[in-house]
Design goal:
Blueprint lengths: L17 H18 L3 E2 L5 E3 H8 L4 H6 L1 E4 L10 E4 L4 H10 L8 E10 L11 E10 L4 H18 L5 E6 L3 H17 L6 H6 L16 H5 L10 H16 L5 E2 L11 E8 L8 E7 L3 H4 L7 E7 H10 L11 E4 L6 H13 L4 E3 L10 H10 L4 E4 L2 H5 L2 E6 L8 E4 L3 H4 L11
Parallel strand pairs: 1-5, 7-8, 12-13, 12-14
Antiparallel strand pairs: 2-4, 3-4, 5-6, 6-11, 7-9, 9-10, 10-11, 14-15, 15-16
Helix pairs in contact: 1-5, 5-9
Length: 436
């Protein structure tokens, strides 16, 4: 017997009925994005490694430790590419916008969904292959679009019933303001170098802002006493931040200002935000993003402002389970009970007419042991969750009929339906789709 092969650790299969929860969330997001006039973009999962080094930042955890990168095979000329499985999708989306000159006629509102890849220790809410849904608005400079994206995420929480999620805001200002803050930050941490862990010491001169994002409790005091970036912001940066807050207040969106919120990627400026929860342990960030006005030029495009967010699909679904949110699972409208295999030509013709009319149908099919008893078929019909059973018995077929039996309501009488008029009675079998 061949050796059994399993999935790569941290890269999980998504199987029924769990996959139905994913489909429900994706359908909900698709509808909501349409209401906000965001259009779908699909980019490759493989990009040139240089895109992420240049876009995310060379001294970030993602680039330094977590990317799946490899040298591609050489072509006939001996040339090869250095490629990376995307660890996030903002850089890839921006690359696509530049490559296809999408901003030639004005700003664009875009959204995406798909798998991302990071090589790290798998744990709850943090896998090597994970999935994100993101929304990005490119070409718009004002705080109104920052607010719109936050309102979009907030509308999603309401639509799917999440309640234990809170919004945190900060402003990272502009590069010149961050440079002043950076100098003060380095001076502060140099005074307390004995309190820094190895990661903090490594980042002290390369990316001191990231030290503020440490999860090491031993560094809490030195981080809390560090200079706050908001104290270095100029009038324009403050006006942008205040404009964002004014819109959120007008829409009754609760938030707190977290001066230590810096985000883990180098491309952010001005507004940054996170939706967080206490229900998922250390992996408490459900959705995060901010403004990245310099990234388009950084990747090689004509300078243009941009802002966006990404949410972790696994974390959102996990949080919904924690809260006990009930997601309707798809079930057939009809289960076809077939006592005799000789009836299959008529059965399949009838079922196809029903499906063409929009009815969700599951047919009882033979196994290696045959169709099974009438009783066992009814048991399967009941377990399927179907509303009705259609019984294709020999006597009914001889009369040109099929028997319709309600499986969920004992008060509905059993009736016969004419096979020659399927289209006329098909609609009476339909129930609303679970994600509508």
């Amino acid at each position: 017997m061949a050796e059994k092969l399993n999935a790569v650790k941290g890269m999980n299969d998504i199987l029924p009925p769990e996959s139905a929860r994913w489909e429900w969330l994706e359908a909900t997001v698709r509808d909501l994005m349409g209401r906000f006039a965001y259009r779908n973009v699909r980019t490759p999962i493989l990009e040139h490694t240089a895109l992420f080094v240049r876009g995310i930042g060379e001294v970030t955890d993602i680039v330094e430790k977590e990317m799946y990168s490899f040298q591609d095979r050489s072509d006939k000329y001996g040339d090869n590419d250095h490629l990376t499985l995307r660890p996030e999708n903002t850089a890839g989306l921006v690359r696509a916008v530049i490559e296809h000159n999408m901003l030639y006629d004005g700003g664009k509102r875009l959204w995406y969904t798909g798998p991302m890849f990071r090589r790290e220790k798998p744990q709850r809410g943090r896998f090597r292959q994970f999935h994100q849904i993101g929304a990005e608005a490119l070409g718009f400079a004002g705080p109104d679009v920052d607010a719109e994206l936050i309102l979009l995420a907030n509308a999603l929480w309401k639509t799917i019933g999440l309640t234990d999620v809170r919004l945190e805001l900060n402003s990272l200002g502009q590069p010149a303001e961050r440079a002043l803050h950076r100098a003060e930050l380095i001076a502060h941490f140099e005074k307390h170098a004995d309190k820094l862990d190895e990661d903090g010491k490594r980042r002290l001169h390369s990316n001191p802002l990231r030290i503020l994002d440490t999860k090491n409790p031993a560094m809490k005091d030195v981080v809390e006493s560090a200079p706050k970036l908001i104290d270095f912001l100029g009038a324009e940066s403050l006006a942008h931040f205040e404009g964002l807050q004014a819109i959120l207040k007008a829409n009754n969106v609760a938030y707190t200002i977290n001066p230590r919120l810096v985000r883990g990627l180098d491309y952010y400026n001005l507004s940054v935000f996170e939706f967080v929860t206490d229900r998922l342990g250390s992996q408490g960030t459900v959705c995060a993003g901010g403004r990245y006005d310099d990234l388009i030029a950084q990747i090689g495009g004509k300078p243009a402002p941009a802002v966006g967010w990404a949410m972790g699909v696994e974390r959102v679904l996990d949080l919904m389970k924690e809260q006990g949110t009930d997601i309707p699972l798809p079930t057939p409208d009809v289960y076809a009970v077939v006592p005799d295999a000789a009836a299959m030509p008529v059965v399949l013709r009838t079922l196809q007419e029903l499906r063409d009319a929009g009815v969700r149908v599951q047919m009882h099919a033979a196994t290696a042991d045959g169709l099974g008893s009438f009783k066992s078929q009814f048991k399967r019909a009941d377990n399927s969750g179907a509303t009705f059973a259609l019984i294709f018995g020999a006597d009914e077929l001889a009369r040109g009929e099929v028997t319709l039996k309600a499986l969920r309501d004992a008060n509905v009488p059993q009736t016969a339906r004419p096979l020659a008029e399927v289209a006329a009675w098909a609609a009476t079998l339909q129930s609303p789709a679970p994600n509508t």
